[in-house]
Amino acid sequence: MLNYGMPPGFWTELTLLLAITILLVGIIPAIFRYGMKADKKKWFSYNHINRLHKKIDWTLRILAIISMLVSAILFYREPFLIPLILAILGLSQISTQAYIEWRFSENRKNYQVSLIQLALTFIAYAGVFYWLRHFM
């Protein structure tokens, strides 16, 4: 019999994937930041260390917007290209933040937490892309 809609178990797996992603990207780095006594970060704010960091961050954002628009126009048959560009942007922003914190931050624990956050975010992206390939 032909099954319309989502496959069985889709919503259970999606809920589990979202919970694991929130744990990896949001909660575990906050616990590490508290445990390593790194500086607290505000949620949904620009945490620029200096002007160089601000310029690099905005350059990455503008480059990502341009590349997403170009890829949406030129490669419209590739559904995973735009999420891949977003993943590369996210990882490059975190790695830039870790480098700038390593070079210029007074608290040396900040860049270590950013590196942990980079690794956990990479694992989360890899898991999400694997899950999407499994269900698509």
Automatic annotation (TrEMBL):
Keyword list, A-Z: Membrane, Transmembrane, Transmembrane helix
InterPro entries in UniProt: DUF4181
Tagged with keyword Repeat: no
Transmembrane segments: 14-35, 56-75, 81-100, 112-132
Protein name as catalogued: DUF4181 domain-containing protein
Organism: Sporosarcina aquimarina
Taxonomic placement: Bacteria, Bacillati, Bacillota, Bacilli, Bacillales
